Please model this.
Amino acid sequence: MTLLIPTFFYISFLYLNIKYNPMKKLLLFTAMLVQACLIGQTLPNGGFENWSSVPYYELNGWNSGNFRDIQRLGVPSITRVTGASGFGIRIQTNVVAGDTSDSYVINTNNPCSDPNAWTGGVPLTQQPTAITGQYRYNLLGTDTAIFIVIFRKNGVHIGDNLIKIRGTGVQSTFTSFSFSVACAGAPDSVIFAAAPSNKADTDLANNGSYIELDNLAFAGTSQTMPNSTFENWTAKTYDIPTGWATWGTGATKTAVSSAGSFAIRLETMSEMCGGENSSGITNGYLSEDSGPKGGRPYTNTIDTLRGYYKYTSMGLDTAMVSVNLKQSGSYVGGGWKKLVASGSYIYFEVPIFSSMTPDTMLIDIQSSRWPVQQANVGSVLYLDDLSLKSLSTGIFENTLASNQVHSFPNPANDLLFIKSENDISIESMEMHNGIGKLVRSQDRVENSKLMKIDIADLSPGIYYYSIKTNNGNTIRNKFIKQ
Model:
């Protein structure tokens, strides 16, 4: 039996399988580089100290587009409402900056690709004649809400039903419904899915269209689907780093930081629909049908993106940093770097070049290289304190101007002096070598304005130091040991 699914519903669920690939386009840079006047550029919250939290309710025993919708748009599409009795569920289409929410609910773990191939569902062993319940809705424009009811037996579909709900467009109070369903014999399981909008290319979904449901049941049986009265929900929050967008289910806020209170943790995960996907961040935005787009204003032709990371690599994996410079939407330069395994935070730099003056910088960082393999699941990237060298103060808010704390001489031989200015006092210092190993740590002894450090036994090379100040800020810099 073949279920002819409209394009709009197929696209909505197929979208779950799309894997962002910020590294799909690698840029070839011209050999001729133009020296730029390094004016300050802005890239907020590089220290990942500032986050916004979106509270939402997740429906127990069901899957939905909520996580991805909050991640992409900042608002949930599935919400708990007062139902015909107790709680009900609202499934709403949201359109933010031209991006349309997934807006669906389904009771299987495998809602991807063609619904004719859906598996799983919940147990049902009696043959029903109809699906019943209560609903109310506001379907804008020409939107058509839909139900899909699929009955399965021994892994085979024996009843595929598509139900369209249009009516007059508005049903303002909960009203009972009963829709006939076909099933060739007694099933062993059933899949139910619902969505509020037509997402066909020629008839885009309308912002604000919704359908609310309560008390789903099957006529002709004494069995019900788990939590089909929509009474059981779990309160959750989703944390979004200010100034960044994230993708993947493994992008989370963490207190395991290089400096300050927080960093971001990106883990490569097995996805709900099967397959593997990296998690990542971008300073642009996530588009509905492809990877990150946009970026932030930027006009330098030469610069360096820098920061701190630590990385657990699975299956010889590497994390990826990609910087794309654009002018009027066309790529004109950038830079990229692989991040290899490190058990502690280490410093990294990505040189950035452009053959002409750009107007936009798009930064994408992800936990695995593309294409992601099963062996890469479990790769974890911690990222903190991103900054651009062209900035005088870095891009994390709790870092002071570099001229308030400085080291000398540079290069140094036997002794390094670190001096603070104005009312800044030095509380402690940590020093790492180029591969992130801690080689010195020192607390304030007497003079809080001047710290003397013996470096005579250190091997020649570049070293990085972190200073904690009396007001809780962290200042980082580097020096050369001769």
In short: The CA atoms of residues 245 and 471 lie 30 Å apart. The first helix runs from residue 7 to 14.
